[in-house]
Amino acid sequence: MKTYPIFALIEDRPCLVVGGGAVGERKVQDLRLAGARVTVVSLSLTPALAELAAAGQIRYLHEDFSPEHLQGMVLVLAATDDRRVNARVSAAAQAQSIWVNVADDPEFCTFIVPAQVKRGDLTLAISTGGASPALARKLRKDLQQRFGPEYGPYLALLKGVRTRLLTERRGRPENAALFHQLVASPLLAAVAQGDQARVVALLREILGDALSPQVLGELTSEALAES
User: pTM of this prediction?
Assistant: First the structure.
């Protein structure tokens, strides 16, 4: 199966999940992490989904699926245990040119959800084009060990520094070199150790007077707080 890898921007966009079981719950969690506004259509919900619905964090329709549920949706995920229902969801979505994924059934998909490793803003996605989901899961476990939780605060720090530099020194030709020096430095190891003094010292060594010590301290504190 040939695919074209993309990352969809669905923050504050309406997305539909058909099915309220364990698989549907995982799909809802992934969509919410991406900031989507999620509607779930199902005659039943897992306890976790029921809590989200009661808290108003997802929209819940206690109904059988119908094509009318697709109105305004940008993405549809079918996750029922009935292949005929999933096929109907897929056909209706494709008829309206809406991207649709059917769990564990590539035949009905217009996109595939890859195996993922998430560390803050870092997302690593793995796909075998449907050839071996087992290998995709193994690779995900390998990547989870290779890219530990320290990458969350590390990326938050890089993002904070980059944002401030571009705000205060936009257009400076040396900015690109500074960004490359940051990722080539021992900064990641210092973040992994939670060594705030060492992190700030490395930042000052690389950035010089580009940002004040106070700003660097604030950015470091904010980043390490995410660990």
Answer: 0.85
